[in-house]
Prior knowledge:
Order of helices and strands: HHEHEEHH
Structural class: alpha+beta
Organism: Aureimonas pseudogalii
Helix content: 55-70%
InterPro entries: DUF922
Number of domains: 1
Distance between the termini: 47 Å
Signal peptide: 1-23
Largest sheet: 3 strands, mixed
Protein name: Putative secreted Zn-dependent protease
Strand content: 25-35%
Shape: elongated
Keywords: Hydrolase, Protease, Signal
Number of strands: 3
Radius of gyration: 21 Å
Amino acid sequence: MTAVRKAIVGAIVAVVGSVPALADPNIVSRIETYPIEGRDADELRMAIIEASRALGNGAHGAASATFRFTPQLSYLEVREGCVLDRVSVRLDATVTLPEWVSSRGADEATVGAWRRFARYVKAHEARHEAIAAEYRQIMVQELEAIGASSDCPALGREIVAVVADVERMHDQAQVAFDRDERDRSSLLGR
């Protein structure tokens, strides 16, 4: 990378902040928002509940994250059968966050509470993204660990099984994180 490109990337990171997608070209992250209106905590809470139901997040999911893993593979036919030649996995992440479109008429306590809530939700979804990135790397490692198969169709079946196993483990890790967060929040009285 040239010095000029490094400087440009450094400037982007300074402006945008720490974005995992900049560090790994195989991770593409997108943030979407949905509008929330209200002047006090009760109105904001009800607006989030209604919007969350419409988004399919359940009654208490203020935000959501969706992930898609796309293995990109090439293989070689060798004397022993068939073997993976190149392995990469693309992760597409979409995070959906609430956006308070107007705080006009809200008191300072509500504005402060919203800011704390928004920071928490953003950090929570960032942890979901980090979990997905970890499992993207696990998928790469597991695919790279596949040895030679007797033939290419057998290799294909093994690839499908590995991808399904890692996706299942990823889903379980995401559910476990949310469960741990709920347990922690209930201890704090949230």
